[in-house]
């Protein structure tokens, strides 16, 4: 059975090189130096034993001869003290090098995870709105939280694999100077164990692929259930919510247990069979392999130090197999987001009117979702500075039409024009920076009221905020004990529905918008407050183009143009007080290219 992770590893290495550049060779260099120093430390046991003059321990092996020659270069005799001094220096140098390696490896892992989180979040934010509609929120949240950490774990394990590999190579080279046959035995034994444990590696890769899906499901369930806590509590369906969450948790438990237990099985295979080999070397090495006792002792020391590295190497590979699929998932999601990327240019086109109220026209606009037609051959014109309201039954296409104006949906046919410019040819930032938006469910971040109001423009002054709050009939903010410093809670949970709408409306009015878009913006307001908000909107006529969806009498009464939608079509439009039902008020718009 082929390991599906193999094609991913080169891609991860290439990506890490692109992100970290020269820091990777520096890390590998430190790893190599540390491996050499540790190998030299263990090898120096042989000349130390020889210098002690024990029976049968003579300094006639290559390692001892190299050590003696090195000491003579510094006019030192090969005494036990001199050899021990060399070992102390080697151990100290190994410790310093290991700490330097660990510091750099930890720093690079943290940086690599952060770079993935930044890339994913930036890539998602730059994508067209339809990208968000086509993916579960939990999948996208996991892509910028859990999954980059899994890639970082793969990165750290690859570092450990390189370190273990270099250490093993150095130890084998040292052993070659001592006993060639023993080296052959060790290498053959290691290859055999790797072959015998390959099945667990393949299974880890399968577990890792499934873990990506389970993590996303868990994130989706947690977000939906916790976000809908009010509904769950109000309907006494806690058991149903728990059982739904339990399904994903149980799958996650099965995967993590299976991977953890497999790792311990592999460890047991390596360690216990390795113990048997150590006993065999000590008992049979001098007779069967014609190896000197001192060499056997050093070989055993090398083996005792080496074999945990071999065991860890297999475990590292298994961890890589388990978590590497996250790289493929995130890479695919990032490519998909990039293919749906919005135009990022911020330069305004020649003749762009700047801060003046926007004029909007929809010409033969049709939008379909699969076989369902959401808008059909819509032709409307909204003059600059007009106050326009769209009405119609649920599902008539009102929100879809607003999404067209915002540039969040692209027509299947027809053109949306802003100030005469085709909207699909305008950089999104150029158009949307001039929009104040308030949706059906006001978005407030878990921060202070002041921070929420400054979301559009951090440089907004307190005087501008006060004026916006007054225009949005949100004077209650000034009466709060902490005023603008009041924290609104998660999704504004510490505020009432009407308070959330008024704060969000004040935010929409800040930043000198050219267009104010209101999607059922007064639905949570009482009649008295709605009248105050409507009066404020009326005062904005001519200064800002206002486009609203509403069924409330106050907004419809004071609007200059009312469009009624039905079945994806503009069935009628009227100007209250001057036009009768069935007439269409369309302001002329001069097209530009």
Automatic annotation (TrEMBL):
Gene3D superfamilies reported in the protein's UniProt record: ABC transporter type 1, transmembrane domain (1.20.1560.10), P-loop containing nucleotide triphosphate hydrolases (3.40.50.300)
A Pfam family this chain is assigned to: ABC_membrane
The ABC transporter domain, residue ranges: 360-592
Transmembrane segments: 24-46, 81-101, 151-170, 176-196, 265-283, 289-307
GO cellular component labels: plasma membrane
Keyword Ribonucleoprotein among UniProt keywords: no
Location within or outside the cell: Cell membrane
Nucleotide-binding keyword on record: yes
PANTHER family: ATP-BINDING CASSETTE SUB-FAMILY B, ATP-BINDING CASSETTE SUB-FAMILY B MEMBER 6
Role, per record: Involved in beta-(1-->2)glucan export. Transmembrane domains (TMD) form a pore in the inner membrane and the ATP-binding domain (NBD) is responsible for energy generation.
UniProt name for this protein: ATP-binding cassette subfamily C protein
